[in-house]
Amino acid sequence: MNILLFHSTYGLRPAVHAAADRLRAAGHTVRVPDLFEGRTFATVEEGMAHRDGIGRDELLKRAVLAAAPYSDQGLVYAGFSFGASVAQHLALHDEKARGLLLLHGTSDLEDSASVDGLPVQLHVADPDPFEPHDWLTAWYLRMRRAGADVEVHGYQDAGHLFTDPELDDYDAEAAEQTWKVALAFLDTL
Question: What is the CATH number that goes with domain 2-188?
């Protein structure tokens, strides 16, 4: 499977490369675009300030440019938190998308969004301050209405970015379960 994996607001840090290596070890081709052009951050607040300084339109432009050379191959879009929102946006606008793997994040979607059975898997902390239950319920219903085939996996009492071993949010058990389920999902695509 050809996977485009987007980083969180912390930037393209070693944990993202480690995740890509894990996916490669399972036989996938993985590309990790750097939407922040080499900048990484120690806190989510610093990363969010940088993201907001660049702006949504510019970040989506960078993501589209990163995907363009590979989009005819039928990509699986994936991402961590902010990167998940980018991945979701691209997948919903790519008629050749093979799947969408969301780790720790979602994004709003236009009412006109329409996909034909796009396989989507979300892994999220439960509860998650960035993805409250009401938001996730509405997101799920809108994704289903758009035609996506959605699975949601919640992890009790895990931190927001619980798959990242470099952060305080890390939860080894939840992270291992996430990768086990995510790799099985990718094998079905």
Answer: 3.40.50.1820
